[in-house]
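Recall that a protein's primary structure is simply its ordered list of amino acids. Everything else, from secondary elements to tertiary packing, is in principle encoded there. The following example makes that idea concrete.
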Amino acid sequence: MAEHVDARGLSCPQPVILAHQKMKELGKGMLEVMVDTDTSRENVSRLARNKGWEVVETKKTEDSGYVLILKRD
């Protein structure tokens, strides 16, 4: 089961900070990050790639947000 970070309603850099904290806490595995802006989606995706996480999937939600599925083995 993936861990979750709900960063909806937060402006940058908060989504990136929350995602980074959870990535460090987990070290590896699956992480689901929920954001609600294009900027947050891009910034969290960039952070993930820079920290060795793969962006497995980006899903658009009904409320115009995004769910990013991140993975690291």
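The two ends are 14 Å apart (CA to CA). The chain has two helices and four strands.
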